[in-house]
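hey so i finally got around to running the thing on that chain from the lab meeting. sorry it took forever, my laptop kept dying and i had to restart like 3 times. anyway pasting the input first so we r on the same page abt which one it is
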Amino acid sequence: MRFRHPDGSTVHLAYCTNVHPAETLDGVRAQLRDHCEPVRRRLGRDRLGIGLWLARDAARTLINDPAELRALRSELDSRGLEVVTLNGFPYEGFGADEVKYRVYRPDWTEPDRLAHTTDLARLLAALLPDDATEGTISTLPLAWRTPYDGDPEAARTACSALTTLAQRLDALAEMTGKSIRIGLEPEPGCTVETTADAIAPLTDVGHDRIGICVDTCHLATSFEDPATALDALAAAGVRIVKSQLSAALHAEDPHLPEVRTALAAFAEPRFLHQTRTSTAAGLRGTDDLDEAVAGRALPDSTPWRAHFHVPLHAPPAPPLTSTLPVLRDTLARLVGGPAPLTRHLEVETYTWQALPAELRPRTRTQLADGIAAELTLARDLLVDLGLKELP
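ok and heres what got predicted. didnt touch it at all, straight out
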């Protein structure tokens, strides 16, 4: 979906396909047929943007076979789908029964991460619509904090890898005329947990093609104030490459037994749900939600937030809610001003099948309806900010 900003530029809105498990190219094609095109039809649009997730095996198939890449581009066109952004965070296995810490490997100290991201940039340059010259890719925020933190050699290795990537992106732009940028995506528990944590390593890299991806669920989970966070990025000269529109789980009164019970229903074995609370002594947290609800790992006199991407249009029932207000505030700062701070927005609710059983979609139809409802909410927020939806 495309929107015209009052300054005349085009803002793209997509939804991320990592909600649909697929490790192979055949699986990606099934996603387009079974999920993406039905969502487009529900929205009544001739064109729908998707934030494509290409696992390692699917990406390698496309890199090694130009005919397959041309066929994928043709299929996107025929189904009314377009790609200006990729989700390069998960490497493989994102549809596994247990993902947890595995999603952070390989990290930016490992050669496979650089190789895979280089592949993704080459593929995105080929998949961009004919009238688009800019693409973006979100990626792992360097590494999970252990054993990376405190290891200067790891930091140097990651910085060197990103510098190499920037040089490759420069060469790709010269060769293709397509400008691809990469955004580190701060996430709780990683060495780059917050937008503030991103400033130093991105300053060290010091290249315009390497910036930040602001995920509004992660921002909220870490109790970051959107205005403060985005102003600090601007002051440091850090480019906001893209933003993922998502909402975290919020518990206002975690000391109450009924709140703990409600939270426990969201603790599940597939994904990591880092949980945080903001205290007078600073941010406190656990790596997963079950650690928080099971005992006294976290102070419970202040609200808790958990890294659980809840559907934008359907916050959980009381006594819980979502951090949709943080998304609204962030979006207003990103695109509500005289010029957009980023032109690529991506709805990323990948946890539909990790919701409590009674909230999960049971059919493809229900899932498509839910994704379409999220995109409708995002579209309405953009229109309310003065953007005009384009055909």
